[in-house]
Design brief:
Elements (H helix, E strand, L loop, with lengths): L24 H6 L4 E2 L8 E3 L5 E3 L19 E4 L3 E9 L9 E9 L12 E6 L7 H16 L3 E6 L17 H8 L11 H17 L10 H14 L5 E6 L1 H12 L4 E7 L4 H5 L10 H15 L11 H17 L2 E4 L5 E4 L1 H11 L3 H16 L4 H7 L19 H11 L7 H14 L7 H5 L24 E7 L5 H9 L5 E8 L9 H13 L8 E2 L20 H4 L7 H13 L4 H8 L2
Parallel strand pairs: 1-4, 7-8, 7-9, 9-10, 10-13, 13-14, 14-15
Antiparallel strand pairs: 2-3, 4-5, 5-6, 6-8, 11-12
Helix pairs in contact: 2-19, 5-6, 8-9, 9-10, 11-12
Length: 600
């Protein structure tokens, strides 16, 4: 869930890293796999879902719709060193010869071709959400993932059905601008709690989803996506799946394991949701460790001292009290912000809560900046907080189709609501649910809207409901952090119990998913598992390289910077460390975080 909370989403911007091998056209053309070229971007004309032409300019995304979907993967050079394809699958698996869907895929190719005895096949990546784009993640972090797992694997990202570049796409609006206006129609700030308004708007959103549905909507669900993954593996000539899924990707992985237990070669689920709670549309188990994650901020700041933590106080309890004072002040007097750089907005209690919640996802990236923002806010300046967390303002494009193939919030809502049990349409029931979640966590104000968003959702057949058990053909590796704000360790342990031989690898850190806290130990175990199937000993606990998020994480290992050696990173792990660091630095709020900022 990538926070599905949303994020819903996971979509972010990260730099790409140099990897085991630099792929270029010359190397790729020697691979025996089917690699096709496309005309220059300026020669491309795409067709949208409604049949209109899209003039694809060179500075826009790769012309995905120029790739003919096929049941056999045909790869095209794209984005420099990557390869792209569109796999044709049935929209409805009960009618395999009926309407078709096209799944967008991208891969960082292995060093070895398929005929080589060194080639170990594709590893599919899902970044979470639901609704996150695997194409985006592999495009940005495929090199780093390849370094972690090794050059013998293809690193394959795919956009799940209904999402982003996969067509048809889940869509509730006639234009991207209409969507933007809808999601910014909130009473007060994005954090304003108006249960009745949210209840009414959810019903409106469900009506819009039904109005724009042409028969596709019901087929966008996790069970069908799991079958799509099997189809992707089969299209590579393999009967079994290799998979690394994060957050909501753990639900997708557990669903695959329950449906196809005999078709698993390797599976890592990282940042694990309680799949039973997810399919019940409960969202009641995610926040169990959220307060523990915030406690890390207080404790780490006190330990780091004023030179490293700008919001420092001698004791963690003092820092907590100072934050409570900020809450109380903003409840009474929201702060208008207009900076010289052009950033503007209003920081009130709800906005501050959302920003703090988001920072818990990636503490090593966010805590130092959050501390500075809180210090400035205490002095009456909200500019730094807004500049860090507020998304850039929406800008209209002269090309009405420029955003036709990006991930949108419609996809998150579709998957969560199609998968989950029907939600009561009663306003009183929603108020009761809100109170029930508040009894679980003080952070219910940042989470209850996910459940609420499914009120009024069109009725669809709920085909897969578990159970999440199975004797898988290879045991699953389950990874969880001790203070994950939205996928608690208890969920990892629960899900592991259902699958014979599954082992939980614990990382003793805050942050969402293992890669949000750089750990050579954890990633070495994941590498070993993919390469030879070896699982860690049950009860294994890994530490991050740097325990305190306010202490500087050493930079990339090179001849001039030997700092990693001082923290126990061995020279033989230099490439692995650089990749782990890139993965950690690369994660930023995704769809789910985006959803939080704009209100559900």
């Amino acid at each position: 869930m990538s926070a599905l909370a949303f994020k819903l989403l996971l979509i972010t911007t990260f730099p790409a890293a140099f990897l085991w091998v630099s792929w270029n056209t010359g190397v790729a053309s020697q691979d025996k796999r089917r690699i096709n070229g496309l005309p220059k971007y300026s020669e491309q004309v795409q067709k949208s879902d409604n049949g209109s032409s899209i003039d694809t300019a060179p500075d826009l995304d790769f012309p995905w719709l120029s790739i003919p979907p096929s049941v056999n993967l045909v790869w095209h050079l794209c984005y420099g060193a990557f390869q792209c394809a569109r796999l044709e699958v049935p929209l409805n698996y009960s009618e395999p010869r009926g309407r078709q869907a096209a799944i967008a895929l991208i891969r960082k190719p292995a060093l070895f071709s398929e005929g080589s005895r060194f080639y170990k096949g594709p590893v599919l990546i899902n970044p979470g959400g639901p609704g996150g784009s695997g194409v985006d993640v592999v495009l940005r972090l495929g090199n780093a993932i390849s370094t972690i797992l090794g050059p013998r694997f293809d690193i394959v990202g795919f956009d799940p059905r209904g999402i982003s570049r996969s067509t048809p796409r889940s869509n509730f609006f006639s234009s991207d601008l209409e969507r933007e206006l809808f999601y910014t129609q909130t009473p007060g700030s994005p954090g304003h709690e108006n249960v009745a308004y949210t209840w009414a708007r959810a019903q409106l959103l469900g009506g819009l989803a039904a109005r724009h549905d042409d028969g596709r909507l019901a087929h966008f669900n996790t069970a069908n996506t799991a079958t799509d993954m099997l189809m992707i593996a089969n299209a590579h000539g393999r009967k079994k799946l290799q998979y690394w899924g994060f957050s909501y990707g753990s639900v997708l992985g557990a669903t695959f394991a329950a449906m196809y237990p005999d078709n698993i070669e390797r599976m890592v689920i990282d940042g694990v949701m309680d799949s039973e709670d997810y399919y019940a549309t409960g969202w009641l188990t995610n926040l169990v460790d959220t307060e523990k994650s915030l406690d890390h901020f207080f404790e780490s700041c006190a330990e780091a001292g004023p030179s490293r933590c700008a919001f420092h106080a001698p004791e963690p309890s003092d820092i907590k009290k100072n934050l409570t004072s900020l809450y109380d002040r903003l409840r009474k007097e929201p702060l208008p912000v207009l900076t010289r750089s052009g950033t503007y907005g209003i920081v009130d209690y709800g906005v501050l809560r959302k920003y703090i919640f988001l920072s818990l996802y990636s503490p090593y990236n966010s805590f130092p900046f959050l501390a500075q923002g809180l210090k400035d806010l205490a002095a009456g300046d909200g500019g730094s907080l807004l500049s860090i967390f507020q998304p850039p303002p929406y800008k209209c494009s002269c090309n009405p189709h420029e955003r036709d193939l990006i991930a949108v919030l419609d996809g998150q809502t579709t998957l969560a609501c199609n998968d989950g049990d029907e939600v009561s349409s009663s306003l009183d029931d929603l108020k009761d649910y809100r109170q029930k979640l508040s009894n679980v966590s003080d952070w219910a104000d940042a989470w209850w809207q996910i459940h609420a968003s499914c009120i009024g959702w069109p009725k669809v057949e709920k085909r897969f409901r578990g159970p999440f058990v199975g004797n898988t053909s290879h045991p699953i590796l389950v990874v969880g952090n001790t203070a994950d704000p939205v996928t608690p360790l208890q969920s990892a342990k629960k899900m592991a119990e259902g699958f014979r031989g599954a082992v939980v690898l614990t990382q003793d850190s805050p942050g969402h998913c293992s890669i949000n806290a750089p750990s050579i130990c954890t990633q070495r175990y994941i590498r070993q598992y993919f390469q030879d199937g070896t699982l860690p000993t049950p009860g294994t606990v890994c530490e991050p390289v740097v325990k305190n998020p306010f202490y500087k994480v050493p930079g990339r290992f090179d001849a001039e910077d030997q700092t990693p050696l001082q923290l126990g990173v061995e020279p033989q792990d230099a490439e692995l460390w650089n990749a782990v660091l890139e993965m950690s630095e690369g994660l930023r709020p995704s769809l789910s975080e985006f959803h939080l900022l704009r209100g559900v």
